[in-house]
Amino acid sequence: MQWRMKDLVTNPFRFGALALDESFTDREGERKGLVSDIRNGQDVVLYAPRRLGKSSLVWNAAQVAAADGILVAQVDLMTTPTKERLAAALATTIFEQIASPLERVKETALAPFRRLQVQPTVTVEDDGSYAFSFQFGRGASDIDATLERLFRLPGELAGARGRRAALVMDEFQQVVEIDLGLPNLMRSVFQQQPEIAHVYLGSRRHVMESIFSDRNEPFWRSAKTIELGPIEPAAFAPFLVRRFDATGKSVSARAVAAVLDRTSGHPYATQELCYFLWERTPGGAEAGEDQVLPALDDVLRSEHAHFSLLWEDCSTNQKLVLEALAQEEGRPFSVEFRRRFGLGPATNVQRALRTLERREIVAGERGLYRIVEPFLADWLRGRR
Ligand SMILES: Nc1ncnc2c1ncn2[C@@H]1O[C@H](COP(=O)(O)OP(=O)(O)OP(=O)(O)O)[C@@H](O)[C@H]1O
Ligand SMILES: [Mg+2]
Fold first, then answer.
1. Does the residue 206 lie in any domain?
2. Which of 24, 12, 13 shows the shortest CA–CA distance to 53?
3. pTM over 0.90, yes/no
4. Which of 4, 5, 44, 323 is most open to solvent, judged by the fewest CB atoms within 10 Å of its CB?
């Protein structure tokens, strides 16, 4: 029977999907803070570079809040390229997460949506869930009026029943891509909803900053800002040990230290490297420090196509800057850095960096830049 048991054991590390339940670790302080903010109706901006765990953190906080009876609707603006699609996604989540829990009868829960300026088409999917879609005519005013009504709904529905509600908007930096007038429209509604917590998640620092920190923008200083960093290695380590142990394998303290030294506690990178380290470890055995570099090679092999595409999309100047930053984080504008890595005029470097930042491959703060795409620096160093 033993071979059967062994076959059933699956890799306990996950990268890419949301980290929920036992895949989620640490972030205690951040999660507690977020739950309080949601409960208090405090608006929050959660900023972090890609794949640092924003969505996972907010999902976990939303689960805790939901267990407290708070109704949390969520939209991902990455999946709503137009106002029509945004209206559909909003209607769906407000119906599922707010209206339905408040009404026992689905028809009653649907009533507020029937009163919208433009009526949605509602289809019931095979799994019993409801999907909304909108067909707007030519007039932009119809869409705007409908969106405005939808943004008001969470507060009205929850308020009428003495319940609290929150609206989470993931990938919020996309708001300016959907429509330049959208921030104004949202803000005009949201500022009249002090009891509703609006949670804005985003990865593109400049865009998020321009939305929330520019005094000419409608969202100026409207929310509390939280910047998410990597997970403290000391907090991450016990999680890695536990995950190995739970599958009948183990990992040495030195291997854990070597992994976290590589990833600096970047959540996605750590789970990815551990995924391959676990794969390399036979059932019942211990993963040792000597297996960390081979596991890193596995990561680089599996990411090769992705990095190659990313690389092909870079101009010569961008490639030079990336190669330099793969050697060391630094100040690419400084004469010294440019001379050492043969980078050419500062204006070229600046243009290259602007594009790399927009593509979320590098991040910079006060002139100091580093590669944020996990393992790209390792891959670039390996190519030399
Ligand atoms: N608290 C955590 N504990 C363990 N692993 C985590 C945690 N948070 C995130 N991760 C890991 O990081 C990966 C990315 O997490 P998540 O999608 O939440 O990040 P994100 O910041 O929303 O990324 P994106 O910018 O791409 O939307 C997860 O798939 C998981 O492997
Ligand atoms: Mg996310």
1. yes
2. 24
3. yes
4. 4
